[in-house]
Amino acid sequence: MTAKARPGKTTADEDGASRRDFLILATGAVGGAGAVLSVWPFIHSMNPSADVLALSSTELDISPIEEGQAITIQWRGKPVFVRHRTAAEITAAQDVDVADLRDPESDQKRAEKPEWLILVGVCTHLGCIPLGQKQGDPRGDWNGWFCPCHGSHYDSSGRIRKGPAPKNLEVPPYVFIDDTTVRIG
Amino acid sequence: MRKVTLLLVIAIGFGLLSGGPRPAIAAGGAEYEHQEWTFNGIFGRFDRAALRRGHQVYREVCSACHGLKRIAYRNLMDIGFSEEEAKEIAAEATVTDGPNDEGEMFDRSGKLSDRFVSPFPNDQAARYSNNGALPPDLSLIVKARKGGADYLYSLMTGYADEAPEGMEMMDGMSYNRAFPGHQIAMPQPLYEDLIEYEDGTPASVEQQAKDVTTFLAWAAEPELEARKSLGLKVLLFMILLTAMLYAVKRRVWSKLH
Amino acid sequence: MISPDKGIGKWIEDRLPIFEFAKHSLVDYPTPRNLNYWWNFGSLAGITLVIMIVTGIVLAMQYTPHVDYAFDSVERVMRDVNYGWLLRYLHMNGATMFFIVVYIHIFRGLYYGSYKSPRELLWWLGVVILLLMMATAFMGYVLPWGQMSFWATTVITNLFSAVPLVGESIVTWLWGGFAVGNPTLNRFYALHYLLPFVIVGVVILHIWALHTVKSNNPLGIDMKGPQDSIPFHPYYTAKDYFGLGVFLIAYMAIVFFAPNFFGEPDNYIPANPMATPPHIVPEWYFLPYYAILRAIPDKLGGVIAMFGSLLILFVLPWLDRSKVRSARFRPIYKQFFWLFLVDCIVLGWVGANPPEGKFVLIGQVATAYYFSHFLIILPLLGLVEKTKPLPESIAAAVTTTGPPKD
Do the Cβ atoms of B241 and A34 come within 8 Å? Predict the structure, then answer.
C-alpha cells in the first residue's frame, strides 16, 4: 500500500518525483505571492487616510503680523513658524557665504518673499520644537532659533549653524494666493 | 469530493447573488419591486450620468430637509466631478468654523475637505421644523433599510393621493405603499418636471427616483466599485491556487493508494 | 536554511528544542490514515482565529470606543482609511465564517463520537473555546454602536436580571451605569480585545490534549500500530492547504460580493437609546439559543435553559453510554444525529422569527427535543442500541473496503 517500489516502475517514479517537485514549487510560489500581496492592505491601512490627506493644506491671513513678529500655526499636526523679518534680519541672512554652511542653501531659495520666512518648527536633530518665536525666548548665537533639547542654533533664515542638527529647518511648500494670504501645503 | 464541489458551488452562488437575496416583502406588509441597477452583480458599476443627475436631485430637493454628513465635497471628484465643480459646490455651503482668535465661531464658505453641511444644526432643530418628525441623514440610507435601493425607489414612487378605503390617516401623514405601516411623515418629494436636468434628460418621477437612488447607493457604499473589481481578481487567484493545491494534494496522497 | 544539527540552529536547539518540538507536532505527528474532509475544520478554525486577530488589531488602530464617536469612527474606516472597508468586511464576515467552521467541527465531533474516552478533556476545552467565542462575538457586535449593537447589548445584559435577589445589581454592575452607555462600550471593547488571546491559550491546550490522545477518525477505533497512521506532513498539511483554498474562496466571495448578507440593515442606523427597532434579532449564530430562551415562558427559566443548552455539552461524554464512537456503526444513533441537526436548524429558524403564532409552539417542541436528545435519547441508546461490528483495524478497513466513503 505505502509507496511500494515495484521493479520496472523506477522511471515512472522518477518522472513522478520531478513532476511533483515542480508542481509543489509552482504552487508554493503562487501561494507565497498571494500571501505577500495580501499583507499590503494591512500595511497601507496605517498610512494617512483620505480625510487626513484632505486636511493637508491650510490657508493663513498674514496681514496682522507686524514686522519683527512671528506666529506659530499648526499644519499637518506640526508647528509652522511664520516670521515677518526685519530688514536687519534679512541682510544678516543674505550676507552669509553659503559654502561655509553645514547644509548649504541661500536665503533667496528659502524665502520666496524676503520679509516672510515660513518654516516647519521641528528641529532636524530629534524633533523638538526650537525656541525663538516669543519675545524673550533665547534665539541662539545667530539671532534665529535655539533648540533647548540638544543645543542646536539656527540663523535668521532657519539654517543650522551650530549644534548636533544635520539639516536646516524645513521650508514647507507654500504659495502666496494674494499679498495677505498664504496657503501652506 | 462531492462535498467540496458543493462548497465551491455555494461560494460562487454567493458571488452571483451579490445584490443580496433579500425578501421582496418588507416588514409591516409594505411592498417594493425589484429594479435593474447597474451597480448590482459581480461586474456592478455606478452609472456616472445617473450619479450626476442624482446629485442634482439631492441638492435641489432632498437637501432641504435631509443631511448627507458622511460624504465630503472632495468625494464628488471620485464620481466624475472636476475639481473646479466640486470646489464650486463646496463654496455654496456655509460652514461654521472656529473659534477664531477672539474666541468667536464664524461662518465661512465650504472647502473640499468639509463634509456635506446638514440642513439643521441638530436633531431637535430638525424635529422642530418638521412637525416632530426627524428627517434621517441619507448617507447610509440604502444600507440601513431592508430592500436597499429597491425599497428607496419604491418609496419615492409609492405615493398615492388617497389612502385606500377604510384606512384612517393621521394628520399631516401621507399614504405610501412602500413604507412600513403605509403612513409616512414625509410629503411626496418628487413630481413630474420638478427639476430641470443639466443634461436635458426628461425629469419624470421615475427618472428622478432612479437617479437619486443611484446617488444615495453610492453615498452608502462609495467603495463598491473598488470592492467588486478587487474581488474578481482575488477570486480568480484563489480558484487558480486552490486548483493547484488540489493537484498537490492528489500527488502527495497518490503514494498511499 | 537553519538546521538543528549545526551552527545557530544547533545553538538554539541545545537550549530550547524548538525544532524538535515543531517536527514532533507538525511533521511526524502520527495521524490516522483515514481522516475525511470533515477533519479539515479544526485547522480552518485555527486559521480563522488568526485572521480575526490580525484584522482586529489593525481595526483597533482606527476605532474610537466612545458612544459619540464609535459609529462615526467605523464609517471613517469604511470610507477614508486605506482598504478600511476590506479590513472591516473581513473582520465582520470572519466572525460568521468562524462560527460556520466551528459548528461543523462540533457536529463532526458529535457524529464520530470524538467526545468519548479518552477525549473528554479535549472536548471540554473545545466547549470552553465555543463559550469564549460567543462572548467575544457578542462584545464585538456592540462596538459599531448601531441600533442592533445597542439593543442586543441591552437585551442580553438584561438576561442577568433574572438572577434572584442580586440580578438588578449584577446588571447595573455590567453596565457601569443605569443603562447601556459609554462605560459599557469601553469595557466591552477592552474585553473584546483581550478574549481572543485567551482563546489562543485554550486552543494551545486543546491541541496539546489532541496530540496526547491522538485524533479520532471516521471509524472511531484506536490506532493500533504504525500501519494505521501516516505522518501529519506532507499528507494532512497538503489536505489542509487544499481545504483552506476552498474555504477562502467562499469567504472572499462573501467579503467582496455580499458583505452585508449576514448583517442587519438596522445596524447602519446609529444607536438610539430612545427607540427600539421593531424587530430585533441576534446574529445568526446565536439564533438557536435565542429560540430556547424565548421558548420558556418564565424569565429565569428561559435564561437557565439557554445557558443549560450549552453547559449540557460538558456532561455529554457521560450521557452517551455507548462504547462505540462512530455513528457509522450506530444505526439508530445515526438517525437521531440527523434529527438533532435538523432540530438545531429549526431552533435557528424559530429564533429568526417573531415569537408569535406557530413559532411559539414549534420553538417549545424543538427546545424540548434538544434537551431530550441529550438527557433521554443518548442514555437510552447506550443501553438498547445494537451496534454494527467494528473493523479489526484502520488499515484493515481501508484496504478491504477502499477509501472511506463519508
Answer: yes
pLDDT per residue as tens digits for the range C386-399: 999 999 999 988 86
pLDDT one-digit tens code per residue, B222-246: 999 999 999 999 999 999 999 999 9
Structure confidence at residue A2 as a pLDDT band (50, 70, 90): very low
Q: Which fold has domain A53-184?
A: Rieske Iron-sulfur Protein (2.102.10)
Question: In terms of residue numbers, what domain contains C81?
Answer: 33-398
**Does residue C18 sit within a domain?**
no
C165 in reach of chain A (CB within 8 A): no
Work out the average pLDDT over B182-208: 95
Per-residue pLDDT of C10-20, as tens digits, reads: 999 999 999 99
Q: Measured between CB atoms, does C381 come within 8 Å of chain B?
A: no
* Residue among A9, A13, A15, A20 with most chain B CBs within 10 A, to mutate: A20
B42 Cβ under 8 Å from any chain C Cβ? yes
pLDDT at B15: 43
Report the chain C residue with the minimal C-alpha distance to residue B245. Answer: C242
Which of A140-144, B48-52, C264-268 has the least mean pLDDT?
A: A140-144
Neighbouring chains to A with at least 3 Cβ pairs closer than 8 Å: B, C
The answer to whether position C13 is within a domain reads no
Residue B193 has pLDDT above 80, yes or no: yes
Q: Which residues on chain A are in Cβ contact (under 8 Å) with C60? A: none
Of B113, B240, B248, the CB nearest to A54: B113
A127 backbone φψ class: left, alpha, beta (φ>0; ψ -120 to 50): left
**Domain ranges for chain A:** 10-47, 53-184
> Looking at residue C280, what is its pLDDT?
86
Domain with C351 in it: what CATH number?
1.20.810.10
Alpha-carbon gap: B114 to the closest alpha carbon of chain A (Å) = 9
Mean of pLDDT values over C360-368: 96
Give the pLDDT band (50/70/90) at residue B126.
Answer: very high
User: Hey, is the C-beta of B15 within 8 angstroms of any chain C C-beta?
Assistant: yes
pTM listed for this prediction:
0.89
Please tell me the predicted confidence (pLDDT) of residue B91.
94
